[in-house]
Amino acid sequence: MIVERPGNARGNVRAGWLESRHTFSFGHYHDPQWMGFGPLRVINEDRVAPGAGFPPHGHANMEILSYVLAGALAHQDNAGGGGVLRPGELQWMGAGHGVEHSEFNASQDQPVHFLQVWIQPDRVNAPPAYAQRAFDPAARRGRWATLASPDGSDGSLAIRQQAWLRGTLLGAGESVEWVPDPARRYWLHVAQGAVELDGRVLAAGDALGFFGESDPRTLAARGDGVADVLLFDLPA
């Protein structure tokens, strides 16, 4: 089965300094048909004005991944984690038994555009933890690269779930394939650019969910720009 989630059908929240699109129910946006996809609970696409951001707030028992598309995002938490995240980098915060953190645009004159992803962990009340890693764009060009995994394999960030996050960058004439395992589920999210998947055209913000599927899939760039695509490989 394939589930379609057009980007323009997502929840939309505006707060002056913030514009956010919610793939799944979050905050003031609630849709009982879109409460998550397996352990994948949140994909928020946020645009934050210069100098603005989210003041300290708490989380518990959630794996939180941040992925910057443009600009710079500053993170600070009360468990000792902190840093500035830029395009090409992935940040992981395991909230564990409880952590308080803040996220602000690191620039006073440029907006920041990023994705924040929440994945439910496979264990609860672990110690909070934080990590950040830069990924060479060349390692993702025209191929899948592992960005997060249960064991940190292939230089990825280790997360507390039997889930893998893979990413690819596709320019004109480039394509990648994957063969789904029907015992797992997959969420394909187009972060930037446009692609075609077996005849389906997907633009930035569009997503497809797969479960019970086993047919090989081909994902190809569409248009002249470079598409940035994320693939979540999730337990059923």
TrEMBL record:
Signal sequence residues: none
Domain Quercetin 2,3-dioxygenase C-terminal cupin: 147-234
Residues annotated as domain Pirin N-terminal: 14-119
A UniProt-annotated Pfam family: Pirin
Superkingdom per UniProt: Bacteria
PANTHER family hit by this protein: QUERCETIN 2,3-DIOXYGENASE
Family designation: Belongs to the pirin family.
Protein name: Pirin family protein
Lineage: Bacteria, Pseudomonadati, Pseudomonadota, Gammaproteobacteria, Lysobacterales
